Amino acid sequence: MSRDTQLKERWEKLVDILSNQFSQGEDLDLDAIIYLIGVQELGKVHREFKKDEKLNLMHIAICRLLEPYGFYEFDFFDAEGWPHYKVKEQLPALKAGEQSVLMKEAIVNYFLERNVIE
C-alpha cells in the first residue's frame, strides 16, 4: 500500500471516529480536529473557551503536531497551565494542498501515538 493511500485511509477512519464522538456524525473538518487536539493538549476539556482562547488552542495544537518535524519545541507551561512552544525552524513556504497533507499526516501520527487508530 502506498504511503498516500495509507494516509488517506487512516485520515478517513480518524475523521469517522472523531466525528461520531464529537459531532453527532457530521464530519469534522481539519480545523475542528486541530481545535480538539489543542483542548486535549491543554487538558481542560470541560470548559467554555473565548474566541481568542480558541485561536490559542489551535496554535498549541499546531505547535504540538509539528514538534516531531523539528519546527517547534515545547518551552514551558505558564501560570494558568497553557503550554508554550518556541520556534526551532521556520516552516517552509507550502501551497495550500501541501499544508493540508502535512497537517493530516501530523494529526494521523498524533492519534497513532495514542492508539486511537492503527
UniProtKB/TrEMBL annotation:
Name this protein carries in UniProt: Uncharacterized protein
Lineage: Bacteria, Pseudomonadati, Bacteroidota, Flavobacteriia, Flavobacteriales
